[in-house]
């Protein structure tokens, strides 16, 4: 569970390389579909990550693209790794998207949260309160599985080389009393403790800062150790939808937004003091 290797990342590398080889050969999606006897939609699904590729299909594409022996070996290995299961696969019923797979191998995670504490720093009691509020018809077993999945995610913060975690919290996220004063006070204490970790930075964006660059809501930027192989991605999510952004222009825009938020937020030391004050208010 603590391993950083992610089949989700390997699958992304594979589809990016297949697209690169197609472009290098000057072939269109329709050219590929006609040559290998597929519907063009299948080629698109493979290149966009909506469908996996079987070993026989991969061989057909590599033959068509006249791949070198080194490229064949590398891409065949990637495909084999992409078919493996990450630890999160056992929670597929409560972790419906690929986010955890992309998160697992990130070198840095930069997130802005406007309404709640991010999952990696949530206490179990806070998480239960959030889940009960959002899943009013969920059974106890379902809630327990969501909690177990969130607890498992936290392993990446204690591994030998944890990702750099930079969190910006809107004041609303730390002021909203989730689960009652006691649960919220403990939750704020968890964030204050995390501020002491060398790989974690927390900033609070106070109400007094006024309008800011992400009034539209929360997002997370994932950066990787080898950006040439694994370019950064952005996740924009809400309760009903998750959007993965990979285009360089889109990612650059969100990185600029994050820089603006960092500039407007309290610095990490001021933020820790701010959280201490709010926690003390809850205990009065």
Summarize the structure.
This protein is of the alpha/beta class and 284 residues long. The chain folds into two domains: 7-84, lambda repressor-like DNA-binding domains (434 Repressor (Amino-terminal Domain)); 92-283, Endonuclease, Chain A.
Task: Sum up the structure in keywords.
434 Repressor (Amino-terminal Domain), six-stranded mixed sheet, about 280 residues, 6 strands, 2 domains, Endonuclease, Chain A, alpha/beta
Fold blueprint:
Layout: H1 7-24, H2 29-36, H3 40-48, H4 55-64, H5 69-82, H6 99-103, E1 108-113, H7 124-134, H8 140-153, E2 164-170, H9 171-175, H10 181-194, E3 200-205, E4 219-223, E5 233-237, E6 242-245, H11 248-264, H12 268-283
Parallel strand pairs: 1-2, 2-3
Antiparallel strand pairs: 1-4, 4-5, 5-6
Structural account:
The protein is elongated. The protein has 12 helices and 6 strands. It has 2 domains: 7-84, 434 Repressor (Amino-terminal Domain) (Orthogonal Bundle), CATH 1.10.260; 92-283, Endonuclease, Chain A, CATH 3.30.870. It has a 6-stranded mixed β-sheet with strand order 3-2-1-4-5-6. Helix 2 crosses helix 3, helix 4 (55-64) packs antiparallel against helix 5 and helix 7 (124-134) packs across helix 8 (140-153). The protein starts with 6 loop residues before the first helix and ends with a helix. It has 284 residues and is an alpha/beta fold. GO terms for molecular function: DNA binding. InterPro entries: Cro/C1-type_HTH (IPR001387), DUF5753 (IPR043917), Lambda_DNA-bd_dom_sf (IPR010982). Residues 18-72 form the HTH cro/C1-type domain. This is Helix-turn-helix domain-containing protein.
